[in-house]
Amino acid sequence: MTILHDFDLTRHTTFHVPARAQWFAEYDNVDELIEILSDKRFSGMPRLHIGGGSNLLFTKPFEGLVLHSSMKKVKMEKLSDTRILVHAESGLNWDTFVRHTIAEGLYGLENLAYIPGETGASAVQNIGAYGVEAKDHIYTVDTLDTLTGDMRTFQADECAYAYRDSMFKHTNGRYIVTGVSYLLSRNPAFTLDYGPLKELASDPDLTAMKVYEKVVDIRRSKLPEPDELGSAGSFFKNPVVTAGKYAALKQTYPDMPHYDAPDGVKIPAGWLIEHAGLKGFRIGGAEVYPRQCLVIVNTGNATATDITSLYSHVQHTVRSKYGIDLHPEANII
Length: 333
Ligand SMILES: Cc1cc2nc3c(=O)[nH]c(=O)nc-3n(C[C@H](O)[C@H](O)[C@H](O)COP(=O)(O)OP(=O)(O)OC[C@H]3O[C@@H](n4cnc5c(N)ncnc54)[C@H](O)[C@@H]3O)c2cc1C
Known about the structure:
20 strands; binds flavin-adenine dinucleotide
């Protein structure tokens, strides 16, 4: 266990924007986590659990305790010849986990290749990419309930999963995710509906690794590498509008792309931002990433204020032009 005072968090977020925590504590097992939580130095303090910091923006020093898990073990349980449960502890790097499952001959997570962050957050964020979401394969989520001090395991259907959302995002940090079980398959079953993945459908020898590699290629061509250019990935969620609103917009913007969503029509936020003339728009060191306008990047010396000013400007411009509200996907602290 490591406990540090006045800790520099800058390298613990992929935005690489200067950030500090009053206290930072990292634990290697659940007993240590419980010990930290019962430490009198931290009683009554605000608490924030982070993973890889790849969806966080700290706008001011965090006056409280930032927690981080170093638990990284994986174990497998065979439910049948084809259905395998893979349990990963929260601190395991997500992409390492995905590659591990593929190496074990399992299918299901290949489309979620190369998403930054850790396995614990995958269940909080309901990460998604190229037609697959974490919730499609999550079986159970193990947590520590910080209110009662008890361990509690949630079935996936108790987690209120929705687009980049879960119950864990709405319970004030009550549940610390300690591990996640994914139900994967030994039978190949691919999701190849997304544009550039479609070409793989004709490959008679398609493997999860081939899909993984294709996804990595696509992502590298469109998204900034966190080590080279700071960002939190997609800064905004894709908005969902009513069918009536979409029909009205379509009259003015016939080329506007759209996708059916369970609760209306989803419109790519990147398209709205680009067609509002904001591609490459900068405030200070923060920029609307020209290769993918959904992303805000730190060009080198951005402050949190640059980023918040830029995202407010983007929201305002998109609202004025299309009458659509964009909501951040990134967690703003
Ligand atoms: C270049 C780039 C590309 C990206 N692409 C995608 C993408 O394709 N799809 C996608 O969905 N996301 C994407 N993201 C966003 C990010 O990778 C995900 O949101 C990821 O799940 C965040 O994981 P993390 O470990 O970094 O969590 P953090 O950013 O540290 O935390 C995210 C949230 O989870 C909470 N949290 C973290 N760990 C725990 C825990 N153990 N218990 C309880 N709460 C916890 C935090 O409090 C916070 O609310 C991208 C980000 C970047 C930088």
